[in-house]
Amino acid sequence: MFLGFLSPALASLLLDSLTQTAVMVSVSAVLALVLGLPLGVLLVVTTPGHIFARPLLNRVVGTFVNLIRSTPFIIMMVAIIPLTRLLVGTSVGTSAAIVPLTVAITPLFARLAETAMREVDRGLIEAAEAIGATPFQIIVKVIIPEALPGIVAGVTVTLVSLVGYSTMAGTVGGGGLGDLGIRYGYQRFMPEVMLVVVAILVVLVQVIQLAGDRAAFAVNHRLARRRNSR
């Protein structure tokens, strides 16, 4: 077994840390998708000339998103400790790390989704408007389905970014692989632990990227077949 050179105690800690990282990444990703997709839609449809043009609202929301995205993650984790304590009752541990991870990654996914939806052919939107479709119908039946390959690619980027953020969360009490690497690999001078942590993170990112690329390819081909069948 590839963990054979580690003691049973360290191997157990490694598996626990991997589980914590998986929980942080998966829960934060789901929350970011649930919050970020509507935010991305809002950024698109409120632009001047779009189906729900609200320039002032668009500027306010865009400024808020940019403000969060420009804040370094480590600083954000400290800055929103009161919010973290309010929501989960503590500022340390895996559950506490999910809060800043979600806050940090949601604007990123929103911008990625916005970029994908902006590339939707305006002719399709105008055609939907011509037949009397409501803004909600246009969003659900035209904009999101047509932008789905780009949105899936955005999900992949979001997951990869979350893996990196989760390791930073570990350095300030968030648990996971980052915490294990710092406490044992760096502070206790155990390079073999750091090596295993880095190897697992590399494999994890590669798996996410490969799965995301295949999903985007599959969605893109289904979309192309649907277009050809019209």
Automatic annotation (TrEMBL):
<comment type="similarity">
    <text>Belongs to the binding-protein-dependent transport system permease family. CysTW subfamily.</text>
</comment>
<keyword id="KW-0813">Transport</keyword>
<feature type="transmembrane region" description="Helical">
    <location>
        <begin position="29"/>
        <end position="53"/>
    </location>
</feature>
<keyword id="KW-0812">Transmembrane</keyword>
<feature type="transmembrane region" description="Helical">
    <location>
        <begin position="193"/>
        <end position="212"/>
    </location>
</feature>
<feature type="transmembrane region" description="Helical">
    <location>
        <begin position="60"/>
        <end position="81"/>
    </location>
</feature>
<keyword id="KW-1003">Cell membrane</keyword>
<dbReference type="InterPro" id="IPR000515">
    <property type="entry name" value="MetI-like"/>
</dbReference>
<keyword id="KW-0472">Membrane</keyword>
<keyword id="KW-1133">Transmembrane helix</keyword>
<feature type="domain" description="ABC transmembrane type-1">
    <location>
        <begin position="18"/>
        <end position="212"/>
    </location>
</feature>
<dbReference type="GO" id="GO:0048473">
    <property type="term" value="P:D-methionine transmembrane transport"/>
</dbReference>
<dbReference type="Pfam" id="PF00528">
    <property type="entry name" value="BPD_transp_1"/>
</dbReference>
<protein>
    <submittedName>
        <fullName>DL-methionine transporter permease subunit</fullName>
    </submittedName>
</protein>
<dbReference type="InterPro" id="IPR051322">
    <property type="entry name" value="AA_ABC_Transporter_Permease"/>
</dbReference>
<feature type="transmembrane region" description="Helical">
    <location>
        <begin position="87"/>
        <end position="110"/>
    </location>
</feature>
<dbReference type="GO" id="GO:0005886">
    <property type="term" value="C:plasma membrane"/>
</dbReference>
<dbReference type="InterPro" id="IPR035906">
    <property type="entry name" value="MetI-like_sf"/>
</dbReference>
